[in-house]
Amino acid sequence: MDIFETIKKRRSVRIFDGRPVPKEIIEKIIEAGADAPSNCNTQGWRFIVVDRQEIKDKICENGGAILIKNAPIGILVTYDNRTKNFEYKDYIQSAAAAMENMFLVATALGVGCCWINHLPTKRKMRKILNIPANYSPIGYFIMGYAKRE
Known about the structure:
Elements (H helix, E strand, L loop, with lengths): L2 H7 L13 H12 L10 E6 L2 H9 L5 H4 L2 E8 L9 H19 L3 E5 L5 H8 L5 E10 L5
Antiparallel strand pairs: 1-2, 2-4, 3-4
């Protein structure tokens, strides 16, 4: 599938068929995020794979969207928030570029995703996932194989 077809085919997928996403596919998706452009090539992202049900449940219990607990896999994209360019929040832009790369590669590999920002506060997310204060949670996405087209 060429890039234009991939962009047109990408959709938000919220209902999954339950099949697990192989580790190799998850690694390819994360690698695509790490290949994204970043402000001054800082590459300050960290990708947290959430596959344990008790963690997904805890995120939901603390204000996260119910879709999180029903998805096979979640990935939280965080970014080092130590920047001199706070006016333009370059760390958010860099993380968003990584997420878009991840979405497009997932689509090309037949994996559905949905960007979720209905999450617990950043403070709670840091506590749940043991994230250092200098990393900001930017976006969470759920993924798996779509139940239907």
